[in-house]
Write a structure and sequence with these properties.
Blueprint lengths: L1 H31 L3 H12 L2 H21 L4 H33 L10 H37 L2
């Protein structure tokens, strides 16, 4: 029973992360057309959500880790759950190594102090969020599949 709870939590919380990544994707056209002063205002609102997202990513990681440990005897489900867990780790690495440093720079910008390459940094920020979207999608498919693979086998 604990295994199923952790699996379900991992899938649901990864779904939330996927939704957040998709929201960043949907914002791209509008944010790319903003002038620097409006971009800074909008971006600082987006950046302010990072602490709230930790309340999703940490339990997601914990539940996927526990599910991976508990499901280790079911080979196919184990590997799929492990792929989902690795995707969560990769998402965190992309955020920590690439996105957060850009966030820290943007957090200190004003329209007068923004660097001349601000649009390049904006494109990089969006690119790394697109990368996270792809990783989240892969993780979501793997975690969802881990719920189904052994069920399908037991029906025949």
């Amino acid at each position: 029973m604990a295994l199923r709870i952790f699996q379900l939590l991992a899938v649901v919380l990864m779904g939330v992360q996927l939704g957040v990544s998709y929201a960043h994707f949907m914002q791209i056209p509008g944010k790319l057309s903003l002038p620097i002063d409006c971009y800074i205002l909008v971006q600082n609102q987006v950046i302010s959500y990072k602490v709230k997202l930790a309340f999703i990513e940490i339990p997601s990681f914990v539940s996927a880790t526990l599910a991976t440990v508990l499901i280790r005897r079911q080979r196919k489900s184990f590997w799929l759950t492990l792929v989902g867990l690795v995707c969560m780790i990769l998402m965190l690495v992309v955020w920590a190594v690439f996105i957060q440093p850009i966030n820290q720079q943007i957090d200190n910008w004003t329209p007068l102090t923004a660097p001349s390459n601000w649009s390049t940094l904006r494109y990089q920020w969006h690119f790394y969020h697109l990368l996270r979207l792809g990783i989240a999608l892969l993780g979501m498919v793997a975690l969802t599949s881990s719920l189904l693979v052994d069920k399908a086998k037991s029906r025949f």
